[in-house]
Write a structure and sequence with these properties.
mainly alpha; elongated
């Protein structure tokens, strides 16, 4: 498997930078959507399918969202949108 590319990426190319920023923004959006989806599914499952009820589901959904929120803030603080930046 060849490791050298015939066209090495140029860090100053605006298309590469724009593509990388779009990729990072999409990944960030996807992580936030997964956190919201996990909290929503947990809330609705506990509310409608178990005896925990509305309050039990709401508390569980809020806890899952809070943990996800803290994890996402911690991981996103260390990832700049510009990959070429050290």
């Amino acid at each position: 498997m060849a490791t050298a590319s015939p066209f090495p990426p140029n860090p100053d190319d605006p298309e590469v930078i724009a593509h990388e920023r779009t990729y990072k923004a999409f990944n960030t959006l996807l992580r936030w959507c997964m956190t919201l989806l996990a909290a929503t599914i947990s809330f609705l499952t506990l509310w409608l399918a178990t005896s925990a009820g509305f309050i039990g589901g709401l508390i569980t959904g809020a806890v899952i969202f809070a943990v996800g929120y803290l994890v996402l803030l911690k991981t996103e603080a260390h990832k700049p949108l510009d990959v070429w930046q050290e």
